[in-house]
Design brief:
Strand order of the largest sheet: 1-2-4-3
CATH class of the domain at 2-84: Alpha Beta
CATH superfamily of the domain at 2-84: Translation initiation factor 3 (IF-3), C-terminal domain
CATH architecture of the domain at 2-84: 2-Layer Sandwich
Helix content: 40-55%
Radius of gyration: 23 Å
CATH topology of the domain at 2-84: Translation Initiation Factor IF3
Shape: elongated
Distance between the termini: 59 Å
Largest sheet: 4 strands, mixed
Number of helices: 4
């Protein structure tokens, strides 16, 4: 499981950069725990963190499913997202294709042996 930390007052570029990494983690088949850390007076504005996590869910909805909804744990609000079944099927297919490509084909070996024994 990978983790990505956000802050309630995150800048747009920082948000996009971190979200890009979350998408890469999900595309590789990892679950991601996204959390928002609050400090001091930010604790009075926890709805900003919930809004941020909901925005993240909307941005990654095509490749991820929410496994656990956002919840407060002390000074952090966290949620877990996992790759959806479509992404996992593609990963398994790519891995099986990669494994099949590495297998030596016996048919070519048998043909070589037959031609050498006939001579």
């Amino acid at each position: 499981m990978k983790e990505m930390r956000y802050r309630p007052k995150i800048d747009e570029h920082d948000y996009q950069f971190k979200t890009k990494h979350v998408k890469e983690f999900l595309s590789s088949g990892s679950k991601v725990r996204a959390f928002v850390m609050f400090r001091g007076r930010e604790m009075a504005y926890t709805e900003m963190g919930r809004t941020l996590l909901q925005r993240l869910v909307e941005d990654i909805s095509e490749i991820a499913d929410v496994e656990s909804a956002p919840k407060m744990e002390g000074r952090t609000m966290s949620m877990v997202v996992s790759p959806n079944s479509h992404i996992m099927k593609e990963l398994k297919k790519a891995q099986s294709d990669k494994y099949d490509d590495k297998k030596p084909e016996k048919a070519d070996d048998e043909i070589v042996e037959k031609t050498s024994s006939e001579e």
